[in-house]
Design a protein that fits this description.
This protein has about 675 residues and is α/β, with parallel strands linked by helices. The protein has 25 helices and 16 strands.
Length: about 675
């Protein structure tokens, strides 16, 4: 028999493909422990499954732990301070390159002027004049003065340098590239695909970009006012700005832009306040230079209307040393937000069906193939169980089918048998053959009076061995071989399960439920002529049907161990049957603390003399009607032991002191062996 155990994922286990029977067996324990199908399946998804060969389906808890671990890896690896720091260094490098370029031009001009002072032929014009050198020095001094007095903030520097006339060509090119990178990063905050074309955007393309922003803001404002903007017309005109995979609707476009904007804002909020202000001022300066400041501000305002900022962004506490560019930081924000999104999807698993809302491709991208396969299998759990006929949907809830109930009982029975000795409970064949009982695997020669349950194959073999091979086969009475049958007596049983507070507090009721399910399965499969009733008792006693047993749970507002009412109800149920073998099997961990009087339950702890008196009186009535009470005690206190001595003395039943782990073995073996004893003694 395959058993499922839970263990922590260590990366060495392979994912296995679970079968529907194995899945139902794994679900059985959760159902017995936690009641309804939805919560049991949810817990199974949370915890995962262990296969027979150290294989594993990771649970949602494990996936969540790995996502958290991946998040921490990213935060401990990168330094977001470097975004602004590297840009500051680049600006400083541009300014210094311009200074060196100015000095070189002055030096070259002065050298050229000196050379021009050498006497030339009258026909040759002078190569340079003092006036030209003076003009160059004036320009150089003016530029150096500008560079010496640049604003301290980066935004001011960018704004000043944007109108500055560079004297050094390399410095001018580097600054243009700096602005283009900044422009691209800013546009990435809204239009990732559009930003790819902005690096070397012509004045005409920039004009089209501004027109697109204007049209987009107009469309968003129309939507805000309840209108229906013409999205198709917009895309026909400006679709080239949105790359090879353009949005199919305005809502999709809004969603994309909101995601990008939230990444930009998360990056900003993850920076120290001073650096954040520096970057903001630099971006404002760039947008002002391009004449897009007001349009971009309006776009941000419109997007915030459809999704407030509070729900869009997160700040991240980076602690690493590895530098990142602004573009890399944006990609990092995207990864972290996707990771956080997956964490939220896993954490808010409202129903087991919502596991399908988790994106397996994103899980694969972040955690790898093993996590992907585990999630895909979890997403198929409900389908597998439905296809097997174990569960069915009732609206938004999952329910156990009769077939599923039988599977749980079988699993409970097999679990208990697994701990028994080889000579423990089984079919328990009797030496006495024939009879009118249940057919078993053994056969015997037919004797007068035996039921004529002919075993055809062995009968023919007997004839062939006697007559030899030939046709037709001649059969006589001596050749007849019939099935043996067990001659068990019929038995009617009430299984009384204590549902008091202490049974749940110490986890004993779970063991009792499992044993009850196992006994129900045993009777249905091995002793179909027997009858089993289930009675649970706490403040009051009530009968429950076996299909409802897995979902039976404790009521925290109810107190009491009302054995008195339990015996009364059991005696009434057994009174419907006239079989000579009637018994009550009681599983409990405490003495009676409640009794029924005039239809009302009275509770008192320590037990009142009245409660003890009425409980023992009811046990005596059971004895008078030939009903035996066998008790399985899950505790051994002094008062409990003394009460059980009185009970067994009055009723002539037996008491077993056992543990939750041994309860199944004790109870099932006793049930079967008692059936044999009754026959022997009859």
């Amino acid at each position: 028999m395959v058993r499922f155990l839970y263990s922590r994922w260590d990366g060495s286990q392979d994912v296995f493909s679970i079968e529907k029977e194995e899945l139902m067996d794994a679900l059985s324990d959760e159902l017995i422990n936690h009641g309804d199908v939805d919560s049991a399946l949810r817990r199974l998804m949370q915890r995962g499954l262990q296969g027979p060969m150290n294989q594993r389906i990771q649970g949602l808890e494990e996936l969540l732990r790995r996502l958290n671990s991946r998040r921490q890896e990213l935060l401990k690896k990168y330094d977001l301070h470097s975004v602004v720091g590297d840009m500051e260094k680049e600006l400083e490098d541009i300014v210094n390159k311009e200074r060196r370029g100015i000095q070189k031009k002055l030096s070259d001009a002065e050298q050229t002027a000196k050379q021009s002072q050498i006497p030339q032929k009258a026909a040759e014009p002078p190569k340079a004049t003092d006036d030209l050198v003076k003009a160059l020095k004036q320009v150089a001094n003016r530029n150096l003065n500008i560079l010496d007095n640049l604003p301290p903030d980066m935004g001011g520097k960018v704004q000043q340098l944007s109108s500055y006339e560079f004297m050094d060509g390399e410095a001018r090119t580097q600054f243009e590239e700096f602005l283009n990178k900044l422009k691209k990063s800013v546009m990435d905050a809204f239009f990732k695909d559009a930003s790819k074309a902005m690096k070397n955007m012509s004045p005409e393309q920039m004009k089209n970009m501004k027109e697109m922003l204007k049209a987009l803001n107009k469309m968003l404002m129309e939507k805000r006012l309840g209108g229906e903007p013409n999205f198709k017309e917009f895309m026909d005109k400006f679709g080239s700005f949105f790359g090879p995979d353009p949005p199919k609707s305005l809502d999709e476009l809004i969603q994309r832009m909101q995601g990008r904007m939230s990444q930009m804002e998360s990056m900003m909020d993850s920076m120290p306040e001073g650096q954040k202000k520096e970057l903001e001022s630099m971006i404002d300066a760039m947008l002002a230079k391009e004449g897009m400041g007001s349009a971009m501000a309006e776009l941000a305002y419109n997007l915030e209307y459809f999704m407030p900022k509070a729900g869009m962004k997160s700040s991240y506490p980076f602690e690493g040393n590895e530098s990142v560019s602004m573009d890399q930081a944006m990609e990092l924000m995207q990864k972290l937000q996707e990771l956080d999104g997956l964490k939220k999807d896993i954490g808010r698993l409202g129903s087991v069906s919502s596991v399908k809302d988790i994106n397996p491709e994103k899980i694969k991208e972040i955690l790898g193939e093993d996590a992907y396969e585990s999630l895909k299998q979890m997403q198929q759990y409900i389908e597998l169980l439905e296809q097997a006929g174990y569960i069915t949907k009732n609206g938004s809830h999952l329910e156990l089918t009769p077939r599923g109930m039988r599977r749980i009982g079988r699993k409970a029975l097999m679990d208990i048998f697994a701990y028994m000795k080889k000579q423990g409970a089984g079919k328990h064949d009797l030496k006495k053959g024939g009879g009118t009982g249940d057919i078993i695997e053994g056969t015997k020669k037919y004797e007068y009076g035996d039921p004529f349950l002919l075993h055809l194959e062995k009968t023919l073999m007997n004839a062939l061995q006697r007559e030899g091979v030939g046709s037709p086969v001649k059969i006589n009475q001596a050749d007849f071989e019939v099935y043996q049958a067990e001659d068990f007596s019929r038995c009617t049983t009430v299984l009384m399960l204590d549902m008091s507070w202490s049974m749940f507090l110490r986890g004993k009721f779970t063991a009792a439920k499992k044993v009850a399910l196992a006994l129900d399965s045993l009777i249905r499969t091995q002793f179909p002529r027997d009858t089993l009733y289930l009675v649970v008792f706490s403040e009051y006693a009530r009968e429950i049907k076996s299909p409802l047993l897995p979902f039976t749970d404790w009521n925290e507002y109810v107190y009491g161990t009302n054995m008195h009412h339990g015996f009364q109800l059991s005696r009434q149920l057994l009174g419907k049957h006239k079989s000579e073998n009637r018994q009550i099997i009681m599983v409990t961990d405490g003495e009676p603390t409640a009794h029924l009087e005039n239809g009302v339950s009275y509770f008192q702890y320590p037990p009142s003399p009245r409660t003890l008196e009425l409980t023992l009186l009811e046990a005596k009535r059971c004895a008078q009607e030939g009903i035996v009470i066998n008790t399985f005690m899950l505790d051994r206190s002094f008062y409990m032991t003394r009460f059980m001595e009185q009970l067994t003395k009055i009723n002539k039943g037996r008491v077993f002191f056992t543990s939750p782990e041994k309860l199944g073995e004790y109870l099932l073996v006793d049930y079967v062996s008692n059936k044999k004893k009754r026959i022997v003694n009859s």
